[in-house]
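Section 5.1 Outputs to date
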Amino acid sequence: MPGLSHVTTPVEWVVTHSAATGPIAVVRRLRLGPDRELYFRAVTWHEDPARRELVGYWGSVEEAVQNVYGLYERSLPPQFLMTGGGEARQPAALTKPKAPPTRQMASAGR
């Protein structure tokens, strides 16, 4: 029998950061729109899912996590971005979110 990784696909990732004491976000794999296009939605972490806030949608889990890190690192004091040589590194780069499908987009395809 193959390992589970051959028959399952993760649908949710809890994102952590070395400067945080707990999770900072949740990324969920979604299929949206009439064509069931693949999206990765990032929301802020809160123990109560009703209190989580949308960060954005991206086309890959890597891009979603990169943007979560970038936004989180921009909220940190500068000393958290210092390297061993006394220089500060740049926060993770931000990219433009992927717009979720709308009814107009679905109608245009018909």
